[in-house]
Amino acid sequence: MMPNLPRVFGSRQPVQAVPGRVHEVAAAIPGRARPVRTHVYREACITYESGYRRRGVVMDFTDAGLRIRFPTNELLPSVVTVNARAVGLLGEADVIWQKGSEVGLRLRK
């Protein structure tokens, strides 16, 4: 039974990861570490300056911002009002990034 194992699983050597690159990605840069995100799945409402409202789901958040997923891929304006009382976030926010139906917002102080 043992002689068949190399034929079944092959005899290729595993590919070695480049340690330098992995270390660069995983290492935290002092003073530039990202804040810990709280993962939630709570409803939020975004209001445009025109008064148009959209409902979405807060995926995660920090004190400075949040990530929201919407059911559609509509483009958001650069500034919106966030109402996510379920996670304690309320106020104006800047749209930092948007990829498909997900949006990253930075809360204004």
In short:
The chain is mainly beta and 109 residues long. 12% of the residues lie in helices and 43% in strands. The protein has 2 helices and 6 strands.
Report on the structure:
12% of the residues lie in helices and 43% in strands. It has 2 helices and 6 strands; from the N terminus they run ααββββββ. Strands 1-2-3-6-5-4 form a 6-stranded antiparallel barrel. A hairpin with a 3-residue loop joins strand 2 (53-61) and strand 3. It is globular.
Write the layout of secondary structure elements.
Elements: H1 5-9, H2 19-26, E1 38-47, E2 53-61, E3 65-69, E4 79-84, E5 89-99, E6 102-107
Antiparallel strand pairs: 1-2, 1-4, 2-3, 3-6, 4-5, 5-6
Structural key phrases:
109 residues, mainly beta, 6-stranded antiparallel β-barrel, 2 helices, 6 strands, globular
What fraction of the residues are assigned to beta strands by DSSP? 35-45%
* Assembly level: single chain
Structural class: mainly beta
Calculate the mean pLDDT score and round it: 81
Ends distance: 68 Å
Shape: globular
How do the SSEs run, as a string of H and E?
Answer: HHEEEEEE
Find the count of extended strands (DSSP E, 2+ residues): 6
Strand order of the largest sheet: 1-2-3-6-5-4
Main β sheet profile: 6 strands, antiparallel, barrel
- Uncertain runs are 20-28
User: If helices are DSSP runs of H or I spanning 4 or more residues, what is the number of helices?
Assistant: 2
Radius of gyration of CA atoms, rounded to a whole number: 22 Å
Helix content: 10-25%
